[in-house]
Amino acid sequence: MTRKYVDCRDYPSVSKCTVAMSADTEKELLEIAVQHAVAVHGAKDTPQFRQELKGAIKEGSPRG
Asked: For residue 48, what is the enclosing H or E element?
């Protein structure tokens, strides 16, 4: 099974967030990434946002 990740550095923001999250499953990663985006970036947890975030999930590991 390939790890999946989302790296905030791939999406520059005002906060200049450098967090990278990874998990074994897309479902697990999506949940933690939504929580992070809402708490840190002020995103709204909507079905559309979750769909966009799913598109940002990559396979492998974040860059070092």
From this structure: helix 47-56
